[in-house]
Design goal:
- The chain is of the alpha/beta class.
- About 50% of the residues lie in helices and about 15% in strands.
- The chain has two domains: about 200 residues, 3-Layer(aba) Sandwich (Rossmann fold), CATH 3.40.50; about 160 residues, Glycogen Phosphorylase B (Rossmann fold), CATH 3.40.50.2000.
- It has 17 helices and 13 strands.
- The termini are far apart.
């Protein structure tokens, strides 16, 4: 009897200790527009936070990734989010949903992933005692596009960003020094802006690939947006074809109907009929692309820190990219890459042709890129830096 009672007392103590441990875990909420984007770009840091003792919640529009997110032990909160919509009713609806969630969970910290969640989440958090980390993975369509719509949106976005980021409970996370300078230019104190270069890549999983047999192949991986420079890449391929340079071009990714810069499907269909061009659409296993490619290409107008180039470098692929913020953080001139001006098909064609004709240069750049990823961009290093930032922000918040 005494033994049974002792066992029951012990079990009760264990249960109470477990409940107390769960209750004292700091609650971290990731607010992100799409489940696939969380899995693709924020999973490593969320896992690092969970290992560090955070209770991780993910608030997002759920399509097919909800079960996978939950399999990591994260709590998923489904939102009805029409990404890219500027309809006032849609905007008010998602603000109400997010505010209700924040009020229910009383999170210690919310991590707003990208520009739109930073705006929506900050508006939803007005008056609530929650620390907000606004992660700007690049500055988005409103700041990078040359279109009339973007130019009209820019002053309003600038004012709105300045207002929400000056909140005492707000901090800003950027991925490159140029974006940090842009935030400082808005009047945000530099001591509230933090730089962590992307979400990293799993260097244990992504191993160096040997060069493939067959025709010299350049590959683009990303959303099919005008701002990603895909049209410039097609024009460069046309120039190389006219010059008799036999380059096979792989274009991997889909359009993005929520983004005004998305390439129309009719134009993509024309690319599919172009000799030497293969449009693969979305490919889940990106290693399948880099096994076929000799060169990685990203002629973007601006980036935060492009994961496609991080992955390409991890696989040992040399890079051709534009000399713009974000790209030049991982694509470094004469180290692992050739950098070219924006919207310049001739320079792009010349850089690709140069790498295509020099196997030793490709090997040297590929080896340098791999070393760079291991030293600076592994998901382990980025995860540790992100968790350290979370801890720092919560310490600061408790003192405010």
């Amino acid at each position: 009897m005494a033994i049974d009672q002792a066992r029951r007392d012990h079990n009760q103590v264990v249960v109470l200790a477990t409940i107390q441990a769960v209750m004292t875990k700091p609650v971290l909420v990731y607010l992100v527009t799409e489940d696939w984007y969380f899995l693709s770009h924020r999973l490593p840091m969320a896992c690092a936070a969970q290992r560090a003792g955070y209770a991780v919640h993910v608030a997002t529009q759920v399509n097919s990734g909800g079960a996978e997110i939950e399999s990591y032990g994260f709590t998923v909160h489904r939102l009805s989010w029409r990404r890219g919509s500027v309809n006032p009713l849609d905007v008010l609806s998602i603000i109400r949903q997010v505010r209700a969630l924040y009020s229910q969970l009383s999170p210690d910290l919310v991590h707003h992933v990208a520009l739109q969640p930073s705006i929506i989440g900050s508006l939803a958090a007005i008056g609530l005692p929650v620390m907000r980390l606004n992660a700007l993975a690049g500055l988005g369509f409103g700041f990078t596009s040359h279109s009339l719509k973007a130019k009209l949106l820019r002053p309003m976005l600038t004012w709105l960003l300045r207002w929400i980021l000056k909140n005492p409970r707000a901090a800003v996370l950027v991925q490159n020094p140029d974006d940090a300078a842009a935030i400082e230019a808005l009047g945000i104190s530099r001591d509230r802006t933090f730089l962590i270069p992307g979400s990293g890549v799993d260097t244990e999983k992504l191993k160096v690939l040997s060069e493939p047999e067959g025709p010299l192949t350049a590959a683009f991986v990303g959303r099919l947006l005008d701002d990603k420079g895909v049209r410039t890449l097609i024009a460069a391929h046309d120039l190389m074809t006219a010059q008799g340079v036999p380059i096979r071009l792989l274009i991997t990714g889909d359009g993005d109907p929520a983004n005004p810069a998305s390439i129309p499907s009719a134009e993509v269909k024309r690319w599919k009929r172009t000799p030497g061009v293969e449009v693969l659409g979305h490919v889940k296993d990106v290693s399948a692309v880099w096994r076929q490619a000799h060169i990685a290409v990203l002629p973007s107008r601006r980036e935060g820190l492009p994961k496609s180039l991080l992955e390409a470098a991890a696989f040992g692929r040399p890079i051709v990219a534009t000399d713009v913020p974000g790209c030049r953080e991982i694509a470094r001139q004469d180290v692992n890459a050739i950098l070219v001006p924006v919207d310049n098909p001739c320079a792009l064609a010349g850089a690709i042709s140069r790498l295509a004709g020099d196997a030793d240069l490709r090997r040297r750049y590929g080896e340098s890129g791999r070393r760079m990823v291991e030293a600076e961009f592994s998901s382990e290093k980025i995860g540790e830096a992100t968790v350290a930032l979370y801890d720092q922000l919560l310490c600061r918040s408790s003192k405010s």
